[in-house]
Amino acid sequence: MKFTPEKYNIPDKPQVPYIDTEEIWNYLNNAKPSNTRIQEIVSKSLSKERLNLEEVATLIRADKPEQIEMIKSGARMLKEKVYGKRIVLFAPLYVGNLCQNNCEYCGFKATNKDTVRKTLSNEELIKNVEALEHNGQKRLILVYGEHPRYNPEYIAKTVKTVYGVKTGNGEIRRVNINAAPLSIEGFKTVKDAGIGTYQVFQETYDPEAYSKYHKGGRKAAYDNRLVSLDRAQEAGLDDVGIGVLFGLADWRFDVMGLVRHTNHLEACYNVGPHTISFPRLQDAAEFKVDPEFAVSDEEFTRIVAILRLAVPYTGMILTAREPIHIRKEVLQYGCSQIDAGTKIEMGAYSEKENKKQDLNQEQFLINDDRSLGEVIDELLDGDYLPSFCTACYRKGRTGEHFMEFSVPGFIKRFCTPNAILTLAEYIEDYAKEDTAVKGWKLIDKNIRDIKEPKLEASVKMKIEIIKKGKRDLYY
Ligand code: SAM
Ligand code: SF4
């Protein structure tokens, strides 16, 4: 899909910082949110166009209840119209919590001497992946602190190890990464290991707030992090994820920052971010969220709706940092991926007992510790179609979100059938009886909705093959 770069005060150049604080505040301070203007902007997004900074600032400044409702119902419509009811599931796996940085908000910061520092041994890594496979997971994101030990070769090695772990019908088919920014060479090395998405969150795009929270270590260099995903693109790794840790600075500025980052990538590389993450800051060891910037539930749901409208083509990731009721609410505004069955204490997946969360041993506390089975149950109750699909990436169809978004019929032809097939596998291998009953019912409904006789017959045939024990069928 072709993007037309807009005109900005700073022309975008590869690997050159692009955040102009004054420009962003100008947009925010001059926005004029009338009902008519908001309706126009929502309509632009519903016609599948990415919004510009002026338009996003207008949505951010909208504060009348009817305007906020326009934004939320617009996001709901976009989600239904473009993406349907599929929700992709994944789990995070912490590989190592050694860290040389001192991000004030993170339990893994170097100055926190109470945390037990641990890097999973090869054997522990395999055991944890086996445990995740036993639960039915197919997609992981590996998470690392920033430390010389976790160099690109090490990351690549752990990725390959994870792909190599097979248990019965269990296997991991997509490994994403959340780790420190790399050099161009480093990005090449991890790309060659077959990773999916490489995520680096800017945390906050506000340079002043950034330097307040990041004192010491490599992460203190704001500009280096800001253009790090340009280096990924230079390395040929075009599947990148951006994010903000909401609660560090004014959320309005940071929503604008995410959109500015998006149009920078579009302008320089003709490709936007594959995913946007919007974690909300949680209390951590020796750290309490600053009430001045704390994002309320109401603001958070609004942020999700605004981001959905702002960048209609991107995947949106919601994590277990959020409590169950918020997860439920924002799913309708356009989140496409959630984690489930999440444990963030090092090595915890392979432990039999569910331990109580301990602030000193974890990066932060999570608010949704339900099992994968429980989350799937709830998704089915809400008529959502849980998916473990990894087909596009393995078929070389990179940029699947762009295709889902821009290729007519793509979702009907590929995404829905693949979601159905991966759910059928899950039901056969891992589901409890009542989940299985609900799951097959939803599968039947989704097959009826295909309404293309040839494809319908083909999906039904593949399900029969899955029932006979074959796995990993996809379009
Ligand atoms: N060490 C790498 C880095 O900092 O980019 C990657 C891993 S770090 C463990 C992953 C993300 O966790 C960070 O980018 C940050 O957004 C998030 N995080 C850290 N502390 C947090 C907290 N107290 N609450 C919520 N998320 C937090
Ligand atoms: Fe280290 Fe990342 Fe935590 Fe910062 S957020 S202290 S870099 S693990």
In short:
The chain is of the alpha/beta class and 475 residues long.
Structure description:
The chain is α/β, with parallel strands linked by helices. It folds into 3 domains: 16-80, no CATH class; 83-404, Alpha-Beta Barrel (TIM Barrel); 408-467. Helix content is 46%, strand content 9%. It is built from 19 helices and 11 strands. The protein has helices spanning 21-30, 35-46, 53-61, 65-83, 122-135, 152-164, 184-192, 207-213, 222-226, 228-234, 251-269, 297-310, 324-331, 372-381, 391-394, 400-406, 410-430, 433-448, 453-467; strands at residues 86-96, 139-144, 166-167, 170-171, 174-178, 198-199, 240-243, 275-277, 315-318, 337-339, 385-387. The strands form 2 sheets. An 8-stranded parallel barrel has the order 1-2-5-6-7-8-9-10, surrounded by 6 helices. The chain has a two-stranded antiparallel sheet with strand order 3-4. A hairpin with a 2-residue loop joins strand 3 and strand 4. It starts with 20 loop residues before the first helix and ends in an 8-residue tail after the last helix. Mean pLDDT is 92; it is low at 1-5. The chain binds S-adenosylmethionine and iron/sulfur cluster (SF4). The site of iron/sulfur cluster (SF4) has 9 residues, from loops.
Total strand segments? 11
Structural class: alpha/beta
The low-confidence parts are 1-5
- Which whole number gives the mean pLDDT? 92
Task: Tell me the strand order in the biggest sheet.
Answer: 1-2-5-6-7-8-9-10
Q: What is the first-to-last residue Cα distance?
A: 21 Å
CATH architecture of the largest domain: Alpha-Beta Barrel
Q: Supply the CATH superfamily name of the largest domain.
A: Aldolase class I
What share of residues is helical? 40-55%
Domain unit count: 3
CATH class of the largest domain: Alpha Beta
Shape field: globular
Estimate the strand proportion: 5-15%
Count of discrete alpha- or pi-helical segments spanning 4 or more residues = 19
Q: Give a short account of the largest sheet.
A: 8 strands, parallel, barrel
